[in-house]
Design brief:
single chain, alpha/beta, 3 domains, four-stranded parallel β-sheet, Luciferase, domain 3, Rossmann fold, 506 residues, nine-stranded mixed β-sheet, 31% helix, 15 helices
């Protein structure tokens, strides 16, 4: 068979310049491409020695480190399925992800080993390893003496490379299954479209547990054989300090808002940069225009999702239009009405896509997978979209009940399910409201139950804060006698949203 293992693509670039620097940064030692190849080989040996077989899952909840990237590459090499988990997830969330995915190996931060160990034991997972954000832990200790070469396991193009869980509108998260070909096709497309080359230096300040920071950013620079300046987190002063030595920066809109608030962010600071991209949340035209006025650079906004990587992009050469996400990449795109009929340019409908980047379905959810695909293979994104007469796409809303806060997807139903379990709560509704920094903030409305007369907003927040990631926790809780509903009984969240906005201004 033809070997379609994604790692093979990267390895051809790594091996051309083994002694060149692959990673460097203020908090890490320099790593060469030889270090990357040898380090990932040792970890691959360890995973295999623990009994992990091709196709098995490896669930990972660790801080940002080069060793975490090596772990991802090791999973590819060993034919394993990489399953990254947001570091903000709490025990209730981890319990579901681990029990649902049934991984062969779980890797967590040593600080959470006891807590995660209980979940792992209950799920029957045999191996628990640790890795902290400094690159230390049993994963590295136990792999240190193993061979520095590893025969990469051959994979078919449709074999799974990763599963990424997305929040579900029903409250149950869905595992999007991404194949080696899904990831490779998107990486090759972006590498070409954004004109990456060996001299590029990517300034990396994103997390590495989701598509943007792990696949979009790192895959592009891996294919180019370029260098990564690896920052553990976003800090405007650190980012500005490293711009002169960088050529590419990928960010969420919140990063650009914070950079523009820093007087040190000047045209001179960006003199060596060739590309700024934005994604994971809508970029306000105000931010787009202010950035150009300050720096002389035009942000390239693109659009993607967990299930398909990058779907559209503004052009590298050509007009980058504020408020748009550019043109379809190497996938077919169409906009349809509720009946599935293609709409005319300028009309709003739901975006549907088909192509090699589109995922293989949801893990162990065949019915849900079938619901999301048309008979002709088009995936229903759920995003309300229109295409201008000149071909540029605009994402104008969401058909799905989704909040995007700080670049992270938040589904209200998941949060509502936790709030509704609190004694004294009759029912709840969660909405997103505009926020100057995060784009949207989570706000909850609660109808007290018969025994909820004394329940407070602080108690609601404190109760669920121990169960869900902080970015999902409501910034405010409002108590109301009833939720507004239409004649069909559906909660009118637009009215609640308006009410929350008015309350914030009061």
């Amino acid at each position: 068979m033809t070997d379609s293992n994604l790692y093979r693509l990267f390895e051809t670039r790594f091996a051309r310049q083994p002694d060149a620097i692959a990673f460097e940064g203020p908090e890490i030692r320099p790593y060469t491409f030889r270090d990357v190849m040898e380090g990932s080989a040792r970890i691959a040996h360890l995973l295999a020695s623990e009994g992990a077989k091709p196709g098995d899952r490896v669930a990972v909840q660790v801080g940002k480190s080069v060793e975490a990237v090596l772990l991802y590459l090791a999973c590819l090499r060993a034919g394993l399925v990489y399953l990254p988990l947001n570091t903000a997830y709490k025990s209730a969330e981890l319990d579901y992800f681990i029990s649902d995915s049934e991984p062969a190996v779980v890797v967590c931060d040593p600080a959470h080993e006891s807590e995660v160990g209980e979940i792992v034991a209950k799920a029957g997972v045999k191996t628990l390893l640790t890795l902290d954000e400094s690159g230390n832990g049993t994963l590295i200790e136990r792999s240190a003496g193993l061979p520095a070469t590893f025969e990469t396991v051959a994979r078919e193009k449709d074999d799974l490379a990763a599963i990424l869980y997305t929040s579900g509108t029903t409250g149950r998260s869905k595992g999007a299954m991404l194949s080696h070909d899904n990831l490779a096709s998107n990486a090759i497309t972006l590498h070409r479209h954004w004109q990456f080359h060996p001299g590029d230096v990517l300034l990396h300040a994103l997390p590495i547990f989701h598509v943007h920071g792990l696949f979009v950013a790192l895959h592009c620079v891996f294919l180019a054989g370029g260098k990564v300046i690896f920052l553990k987190k976003f800090d405007s002063a650190d980012v500005i300090r490293h711009f002169p030595a960088s050529t590419v920066f990928m960010a969420v809109p919140t990063f650009y808002v914070r950079l523009l608030a820093d007087p040190a962010f000047t045209r001179d600071a960006c003199r060596n940069m060739r590309l700024f991209t934005s994604g994971s949340a809508p970029l306000l035209e105000e931010t787009f225009n202010a950035f150009t006025a300050r720096t002389g650079h035009v942000i390239l906004e693109r659009y993607g999702m967990t299930e398909a990587g990058m779907i559209t992009s503004n052009p590298y050469d050509g007009l980058r239009k504020a408020g748009t996400v550019g043109f379809a990449l190497d996938n077919e795109a169409r906009i349809v009405d509720d009946a599935g009929r293609v709409v005319a340019d300028g009309e709003i409908g739901i975006l549907e896509i088909r192509g090699p980047n589109v995922f293989k379905g949801y893990w162990r959810m065949p019915e849900k997978t079938a619901e999301e695909f048309r008979p002709d293979g088009f995936f229903i994104t759920g995003d309300m979209t229109c295409r201008d007469e000149d071909g540029y796409y605009r994402i104008v809303g969401r058909a799905k009940d989704l909040i995007i806060s700080g670049g992270y997807n938040v589904y209200p139903k998941e949060i509502e399910s936790f709030i509704d379990e609190i004694p004294g709560v009759g029912e709840s509704a969660v909405v997103g409201v505009p926020h100057p920094d995060f784009g949207e903030a989570v706000v909850a409305f609660v109808v007290p139950g018969t025994d909820g007369e004394t329940l407070t907003a602080a108690e609601v927040i404190a109760t669920i804060k121990d169960k869900i990631a902080n970015f999902k926790v409501p910034k405010a809780v409002y108590f109301v006698p009833e939720l507004p509903r239409n004649t069909m009984g559906k909660v009118q969240k637009n009215q609640l949203r308006d009410q929350a906005i008015s309350a914030a201004k009061a």
